[in-house]
# Entry
Amino acid sequence: MQLIFNALIAGSLAALIAGGLSLVYGTLGVFNMALGQMVLFGGYITWFLHIQMEIPLLMSICGGALFGALLAWFTFEVFVNPFYKRHRFLPLVTTIALSMILDGLILIIFKSSPKGILQGLKNSVEIFGAIISTEQIALIAFTILILCSFAYVLHSTSIGRKIRAVVQHPQAAMSLGIRSPQLHRLIFISSGVLASFGGIFIGIDQNLSPVLGFPITIKAYAAIIAGGRGHFWGAIICAYLIALIEQLVVGIPLLPGGNYIPAGYQHSVALFFIIVFLIFKPTGLFCSRLRTA
# Structure
């Protein structure tokens, strides 16, 4: 049961990031390789506001999310928008360059020591024999609330229907008068806000560290590749599935003699997902074929 709760916590973090990213990949068809650094910046800004500036936690979280939106807007305007219309692989190069710049800024500004948004010991409770902190319960509930709110916007509002139209068929959407470029910008900024919430999640649950950027990026892209291009719920389901498999791989004695696989191999599960799905199921689990005339 402890492994299931651990997977629920890790999956909630991955789902926050992968949900918005799935729409970016579905509409623009580009890879944002600076995603992990954008996640970390959202967490670090919240840490700075709450710990260094002594601003209340809720206001600090809003500040971190606002900075994530601004960073996503800057990334889109400078590193994505001028290039993705020429070739969808060009932003891959430009966002790799951005990730290196942001890595350097994180080390210069925040140093390499781990930093946590909440100081002191966390209150823990026992549920079905598993130990989970009250902060983790709040983070899981907050993640579900954010994802449900995002889903409501996608499925029950005019702007959400336009976004889904652009994801499913951008040319047909433009022929109906939907301004795809503006929606591309809005979707990219929304993904930045969700990414910053992911960084805040890390800072509250664990500690922020500059080395977390690359594993976060790999896990998010594994979820959207397995879920299917542009499939919001597919990416979320696969994020939780990958987190569950990661916990089972290192939490169950799979080696001879009852030995456990070292925890360092946990992150290889996401890489395994990417390889397997690109070879055997490149369209993903939930992607349906579009009919063409």
The first strand starts at residue 124 and ends at 127.
